[in-house]
């Protein structure tokens, strides 16, 4: 089991910055993939940024160059720094974790945190 607890989020003006963070309940390096997804009203949940065990971050095209994902092994957290925010970044942001044990994969989600970009 992996529990994920998000913090951060809120209301920010276009062009502003925000940071969301997610605390994991186990050593983050024992989790194969950690990262962030988002879901806007009426839309599907999409990947925003993830980090796999190789440590290499992967980003969705709409956020490349604006968002930065990082993980902290001392705190077992994964964070998403969001810069130059746009109204279309408005969504509920979910922390995500995936563990692969033998041939099985287990996925976990946080409760979500609202990010609203509006003037």
Number of strands: 11
Quickly count the helices. 0
Q: Order of SSEs, N→C?
A: EEEEEEEEEEE
Helicity level: under 10%
Which runs of at least 5 residues are low in confidence (pLDDT < 50)? none
Structure overview:
This protein has 119 residues and is mostly beta strands. The protein is built from no helices and eleven strands. It has strands spanning 4-8, 10-12, 18-24, 33-39, 46-52, 57-59, 67-72, 77-82, 91-101, 104-109, 113-117. Strands 2, 4, 5, 6, 9, 10 and 11 form a seven-stranded mixed β-sheet that branches. The mean pLDDT is 96.
Summarize this structure as a short list of keywords or feature phrases.
single chain; 119 residues; mainly beta; 7-stranded mixed sheet; 4-stranded antiparallel sheet; 55% strand
Task: State the gist of this model.
The protein has 119 residues and is mainly β. It contains no helices and 11 strands. The strands form 2 sheets. Strands 2, 4, 5, 6, 9, 10 and 11 form a 7-stranded mixed β-sheet that branches. Strands 1-3-8-7 form a 4-stranded antiparallel β-sheet, with no helix packed on it.
Blueprint of the fold:
Blueprint: E1 4-8, E2 10-12, E3 18-24, E4 33-39, E5 46-52, E6 57-59, E7 67-72, E8 77-82, E9 91-101, E10 104-109, E11 113-117
Parallel strand pairs: 2-11
Antiparallel strand pairs: 1-3, 3-8, 4-5, 4-9, 5-6, 7-8, 9-10, 9-11
């Amino acid at each position: 089991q992996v529990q994920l607890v998000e913090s951060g989020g809120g209301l920010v003006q276009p062009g502003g910055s925000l940071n969301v963070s997610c605390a994991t309940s186990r050593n983050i390096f024992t989790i194969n993939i950690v990262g962030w997804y988002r879901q806007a009203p009426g839309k599907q949940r999409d990947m925003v940024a993830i980090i796999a065990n190789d440590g290499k971050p992967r980003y969705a095209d709409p956020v490349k160059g604006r968002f930065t994902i990082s993980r902290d092994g001392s705190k077992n957290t994964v964070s998403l720094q969001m810069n130059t925010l746009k109204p279309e970044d408005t969504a509920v942001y979910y922390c995500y974790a995936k563990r692969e044990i033998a041939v099985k994969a287990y996925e976990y989600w946080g409760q979500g945190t609202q990010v609203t970009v509006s003037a």
